[in-house]
């Protein structure tokens, strides 16, 4: 498989502006072709900066936001108003600032005392609202992802059983090192999306980025290395995260 394109930007703000433009372009293309843009949001600080950018001019004026259907790639097992909630972060930094109908925002119910039920219900929502590919996999137009220093994406953490799930689209996962439960999209859904944007900024991510870019083994060592999307995967990095990888400007690793 051809290496995914890598976009390297001087700093997190420039990265966010470039990712915002890519988001807008993908949204406009999907809306013009199919009248809707199905997108899954990520949690974390790097995605947060993208949301703040999208909620401001000129990007806020560039999309017919009423055509979005907004979902989440993962959620912490907390209430929607909890400081750790990905939904709360997206609401405060993006959703409250744009004319997206509240009925078009579909959060994962992390507060549920029965996360298996919450996962099943979200899975049923996805298969009801999204195009479904072969095998029944719901197909997003875009899934946004951050990258953890341990190579996790969404809430697909190293060593968790959820990495081996291939016949479900949403699952609960207990993350030992965080001593907490999460809900997450599974790899089949990530790998079936039309587009994946991986947003990585900061020197703290440089070690994992170098390790992934220097990969020579076939066997995946990190969850991020299990991404083999049918669609496109694009890395958006700042220079601090991309240092010593040889990636500069827009080029494959
Ligand atoms: C979450 C995210 C998680 C995040 C990465 C990167 O729920 O925290 O889904 O996958 O995107 O940990 O987060 P930062 O950009 O804050 O490093």
Write the layout of secondary structure elements.
Layout: E1 6-9, H1 12-34, E2 37-41, H2 45-54, E3 68-72, E4 74-76, H3 86-93, H4 115-129, E5 142-146, E6 170-175, E7 180-185, H5 187-190, E8 195-200, H6 206-213, E9 232-238, H7 239-242, E10 250-251
Bound molecules: 6-phosphogluconic acid.
The site of 6-phosphogluconic acid (6PG) has 16 residues, from helix 2.
What is the helix fraction of residues, given as a range? 25-40%
Question: How many domains, as an integer?
Answer: 1
CATH class: Alpha Beta
- Overall shape: it is globular
Number of helices: 7
Q: Uncertain runs with pLDDT below 50, 5 residues or more?
A: none
* Rg measurement, Å: 17 Å
CATH T-level fold name: Rossmann fold
Q: Structural class, from secondary structure content?
A: alpha/beta
Beta percentage is: 15-25%
Largest sheet: 7 strands, mixed
Task: Return the string of H and E elements.
Answer: EHEHEEHHEEEHEHEHE
The unique ligands bound to this protein are:
6-phosphogluconic acid
Cα distance spanning the termini? 12 Å
